[in-house]
Amino acid sequence: MSDFLHPYDNLDVLGRYSKVAPLLTKFLNKKELASKIIGENFVVLKRWTKNIPLHIQDFKEINEKYLKLRDNHHLDEVKDQLTAKQVLLWQYFVPRKLINFFYACNNEYGDTIDRIFIDIDRQTNSADDARKVTLELLKIISSDKQFNDLIDFRILTLRTGASFHIYLLLKKPVDHAFYDSYLSYGKGKENSFISRRAEQASQATQLKVLAGHERKKWAIILDTSNTPPGKLARCPFSLHIKNNKTIDGIAVPVSQADLSDPKLISNLEKITPEMIWKNIDQYKKLLP
């Protein structure tokens, strides 16, 4: 494919997502996928709670013949030529639309979690402010002996297109009660892990950092609320879409060394899908 987003003629993001899907097999294994389709006057969220579940292994059904059929046909016209999985992929990732790629962070249903998800949300703060807070948070987590004695994990950090996500990928799943005890926030939770880390990050960076879910224009928010089962998170390499005509970023894994670079944001803002594929070996090293 000469153009990752227009593989033959018309816009089709599925060809591009199929290229990176093999790299995500381990990270998204058994996780239900979701898509957010962006139209001119509508947004449609496709997920298992209202549809047949889709998994990363299903992307093996994507081939050149299939992508060519999608280029200038509607699903009803070619449905009898497709497998059940190809039909499902078409329904989640319709052609000729920009689409965000999500997944159920700790599955759609269940009582355990195998990853802790921290969204570093910014409103009026700069993307570089978010970089500084993310870097400081990684340092704090790595040096927190008490927390590290509770769980064993590997850290994955994503630049999402607008800000950053931090994952603590657990080597052993824990009960949902662990989130309630250590990672939730609000009244009576001032001493929880995430509340104390927000205070420390604020002191270290001299930026206003809070634990919570409500977005505030004057603060960077550390939000863990998408950790429990039934909540969605953005997939690595997902497009970050501003509106039906504009891609304003791409989710890519970054290292702590990357975050230490003051030029990181300006460098990432220049990244295209083709550039990611050209340097895919660099990104593969950072994925589980």
Structural class: alpha+beta
State the shape: globular
Strand order of the largest sheet: 7-8-4-6-5-12
Q: Cα distance, first to last residue?
A: 27 Å
Count structural domains. 2
Largest sheet: 6 strands, mixed
Mean of residue pLDDT?
Answer: 94
* Residue fraction in strands: 15-25%
Low-confidence regions: none
Total strands: the figure is: 12
Q: What is the CA-based Rg, rounded?
A: 19 Å
Binned, the helix content reads 25-40%
What's the helix count?
12
Q: Please write the string of helix (H) and strand (E) elements.
A: HEEHHHEEHHEEHHEEEEEEHHHH
List the helices and strands and how they pair.
Layout: H1 13-20, E1 33-38, E2 43-46, H2 64-72, H3 75-78, H4 84-92, E3 98-104, E4 112-121, H5 127-143, H6 145-150, E5 153-159, E6 164-175, H7 176-183, H8 193-205, E7 209-211, E8 220-223, E9 232-234, E10 239-243, E11 246-250, E12 252-254, H9 256-259, H10 264-268, H11 273-278, H12 280-284
Parallel strand pairs: 7-8
Antiparallel strand pairs: 1-2, 1-3, 3-9, 4-6, 4-8, 5-6, 5-12, 10-11
Helix pairs in contact: 5-8
